[in-house]
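Many introductory courses stop at the sequence. We go one step further.
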Amino acid sequence: MIKPHGADALKPLLVSDPQERQALLAEAESLPSLVMNSAAAANAVMLGGGYFTPLDGFMNLADALSVAANMHTASGLFWPVPILNLTDDTSAIEGADRIALRDPNRDGQPIMAVMNVASIEVVTDQQIELMTKQVYGTLDENHPGVSVFRSLGNRCVAGSIQVLDLSYFATDFGDTFKTAVEIRDEIAARGWEKVVAFQTRNPMHLAHEELCRIAKERLGADGIVIHMLLGKLKPGDIPAPVRDACIRKMVEVYFSENTVMVTGYGFDMLFAGPREAVLHALFRQNMGATHLIVGRDHAGVGDYYGPFDAQAIFDELPDGALEIEIFKADHTAWSKKLNKVVMMSEAPDHQPEDFLVLSGTKMREMLGQGIAPPPELSRPEVAEILMNYYQSEEAA
């Protein structure tokens, strides 16, 4: 199986021994505590599940600035995006060398982790601006990732952590949420060696389904891991339980047995385009995938990135930065000429009118009115789940 990034074995920071966990929880109750923001809590979940191997916790300012500028830590570890615990108030933890980290996303703000505080540093506005520009490629506050990052605070709390709890993901998405450890174990149990991962934050329509098939066939892969984001998106996006139901129904009806795993991970979408695409590849390598499908405007939003910027960045990475490979995909659509889904770049004899394409806005309007999209665009079983969701939203 493919090696984890920067290590011979996964490094999940979740404390799995029940007695050790209880002892740490008891200790944590007496420690100074910090309520994390959602972005830091999501980082803790990814660290806990082994997705961020080989990191042992939150980066300090020197590492964060180095990663933002050069995609490697001060010690030289390749990493595409700063993994930070930022806050605007450290008064409750000043002088402490060990603290409890609390979950902002659940009632009562329960303890999520114990942290050995290595440093608490002030991040200047200029440094925040610099990292924002380098990671997101823009300073536009209308960019959802930029607006979140610039609101997190200017105190950087760095140090190693022991994760005691994986937030709401394990309880709310019990059948879907999996750690990198669990996915690796399942890949091994299925006997898969070549594994292609598909990142999604949306329900999957026919074009997405066929893209997974195309990638699997061309790569000669043993299986596909559909790996959906379960954390925070942006206003108006379809909730994770609805996406989960759509994807599971599609796989159940239209894929052969033992060819697809439906899984999810607990992280908040960054919308960082190329940089986030590299992060997606890195933690898919950690979960055991040998290939990641990177399509048009992967991890993008609006018009902030070029359609293939998220593919081009991989051509610029240092040799050996990652072992995982990417499967470069163009936009897929139904060809009226060929009566099947194709990559648009592979149909040079087609004119725009030869493809059946519907905007996301139009698709949502139809579903909200109880009108199923054509079967060339969406499986009827998936459309039914989405129609029920949109109509219930309009009735609320």
